[in-house]
Amino acid sequence: MSKAFNRLVRILVTILAALCIAAFLLYARLPSIISGKVSDALQTAVSLKKVDLSPSDINLEELVVSNVPGSVLPDAFSAKTISLNAPLTNYIKDDIVIEEIDLDGVYLALEFESPTNTTSNWNVLMKPLSSDPPSSRSKKTVLIKTLVITNINVDLVYKNKGSNVKKLPRIEKIVLTNINSEEGFPMDQIMNSVLGQMLKSVFIQQNLKDALNGLLNQPKDTAEGILSPLRNFLGK
């Protein structure tokens, strides 16, 4: 009896050790897994330094999204920290509710062909998020109750003026509430909502309303291509 019990204990300890090692290896790979998913969604290179998980939130550090080929600036977006405040179990529900998402130390690059041609790097980056046919999309919904973005630095470039970079006034804080998204895979919906609402707010606060209106009011044959996704993301 004692020998059998000891053998059972050894087996259980071995299994537990194996599970701990597997969990550690998976946890160590989380930054590459998440950055790979974001990279696939935006179809550009993405890096992420660190991921911390707890039962009530997800914390990311130093997320960097590379710019599209041919851009003047190497990065399109970066954030020093991103925190998603919601129980991990929420993400497996059909109706996902996130209490708050906080982004701090944000960098945003806006590159236009010219002051009168409002095609931008973000038209290209956002297009893949809505390129899947409706029949292939998840039926999950996402509600972000509060989105807080702080310490935002924005670089503006008009390509027809060479590589001159205009640094726009720093935005200390943007707070948005009750952001809804439907039909799509949860990660895509979260990126869609956060990036789209952030872009809209930055355009307005940086007095780029003409560029924003230009993006949303292109002729229909043009908007059907690159611009139609951005129209959806910016809520018009």
How many structural domains does the protein architecture include? 1
* DSSP E strands, number: 7
Total of DSSP H or I helical runs spanning 4+ residues: 5
Strand residues, percent? 25-35%
| Alpha carbon gyration radius | 21 Å
Structural class, by secondary structure, is: alpha+beta
Q: Can you give the mean pLDDT?
A: 74
Please give the alpha-carbon distance between the first and last residues: 73 Å
Outline the secondary-structure elements.
Layout: H1 2-42, E1 46-54, E2 57-66, E3 75-85, E4 95-112, H2 121-126, E5 141-158, E6 166-167, E7 171-182, H3 186-205, H4 209-216, H5 220-233
Parallel strand pairs: 4-5
Antiparallel strand pairs: 1-2, 2-3, 3-4, 5-6, 5-7
Explain the overall architecture.
The chain has about 240 residues and is an alpha+beta fold. It has one domain (about 1-235). The protein is built from 5 helices and 7 strands, in the order αββββαβββααα. It has helices at about 1-40, 120-125, 185-205, 210-215, 220-235; strands at about 45-55, 55-65, 75-85, 95-110, 140-160, 165, 170-180. The radius of gyration is 21 Å and the shape is elongated.
